[in-house]
Structure formats: C-alpha cells, structure tokens
Write a structure and sequence with these properties.
CATH architecture of one domain: Orthogonal Bundle
Structural class: alpha+beta
Radius of gyration: 17 Å
Number of strands: 3
Strand order of the largest sheet: 1-2-3
Mean pLDDT: 89
Shape: globular
Helix content: 25-40%
Distance between the termini: 54 Å
Strand content: 5-15%
Number of helices: 5
Order of helices and strands: EEEHHHHH
Length: 175
C-alpha cells in the first residue's frame, strides 16, 4: 500500500495520517485547572513536545485525548500516570536515563535532585557533574506532566512554577 505524505513544518496544523495509525500535529487548548494553555506536538504518534504557551497558534487542534486526560488530572479527577503515553525523546543518552527514571516517581510523591541522581542508572549523587546532568534534563524536559518534573522539589524543571505548584497541590505534595 502506497501513501504519500505531505511534509509540513512541525508547528503547522498538520493532521497527517501515515499508514492510517500515526498522527502528527499541534494540539492545544486553554485548561482552566492550570489557568494556562497546554500545547502538545505529536509526530509519528509520539509526543515530542509539551509546553505551556501564553497563547496558542490559530491552527492548533483542540480535540486530542491526551489534552482531556491532562485536564482531568489537573482538576484532580484522576490520578493518571501517563505511563502509556509514547514519547519521542531526542535528548542526550544521560538525560534520557534521567527522564526515564523521573517517569517512575509515583503520583503524590516527590524526590530531590540528589535522590533522582541516585535513582538514575550510571549517575552518582556525589558527583557535581551528574547532578548538573539531572538539573539539565529537568530544565530541558520536552514533555512536562508526562515526565513529571514538578515532583522534583528542589530543581526548576520545564514546567512553569505556577503550573508546578498547582500540580503538586493536586497530588498532595507538600512543598
């Protein structure tokens, strides 16, 4: 079966079906529980970027299941783990290890940078370079919420501070 695909820039509205199973495009809408817009970039059926812009592009599509799930989670209606969400990570190997480990931090629990460093394979919490790797992975996190950097209480992640505070509150994380 042959299928032609029109290549479009990542930030254009593009609902491109490839082989009838993969979706690509920009999805977003304002989520009242976060008092913020949430924008999700998807390529090949994988989340490649989740961000919190001040406003959305005119061509962003509002209907996307993951947006519904994030809204329910942020409103405290579900304890979604988002562990079934495929992520297309394009980060250095050490950062990938950190982000994969971050994904295992359970809902309602928090860790410190030192703890996350200790939990991440091949990293030593006593090494300053390894703690810098963890901080860098958190600040460059391409998919906050799905990769819950708000659960690391002593580091700034990619989640804006007000959103991180809301998410910690929803999860009952004191900090």
């Amino acid at each position: 079966m042959c299928c032609s695909v029109v290549v479009r820039t990542f930030y254009q509205r593009a609902l491109v079906r490839i082989g009838m199973s993969d979706i690509a495009g920009i999805f977003g809408r304002e989520l009242a529980p976060l008092d913020r817009c949430v924008q999700i970039g998807v390529a090949g059926g994988k989340v490649v970027k989740l961000s919190f812009p001040q406003s959305l592009p005119d061509d962003a599509t509002a209907e996307y299941d993951l947006l519904n799930r994030i809204e329910a989670y942020a409103a405290g209606r579900t304890e979604d783990k988002f562990d079934d969400v495929d992520i297309g990570l394009t980060v250095p190997t050490e950062q990938r290890s950190v982000l994969d480990t971050l994904r295992t931090v359970p809902y309602g629990e928090s860790v410190t940078v030192e703890q996350l460093t200790r939990m991440s394979p091949g990293l030593d919490p006593d090494e300053d370079d390894d703690q810098r790797t963890v901080r860098s992975a958190l600040s460059e996190n391409p998919a906050p919420i799905v990769l819950p950097d708000h659960r690391v209480v002593d580091a700034g992640g990619a989640t804006p501070p007000a959103v991180a505070s809301t998410l910690r509150s929803v999860e009952g994380i004191d900090h």
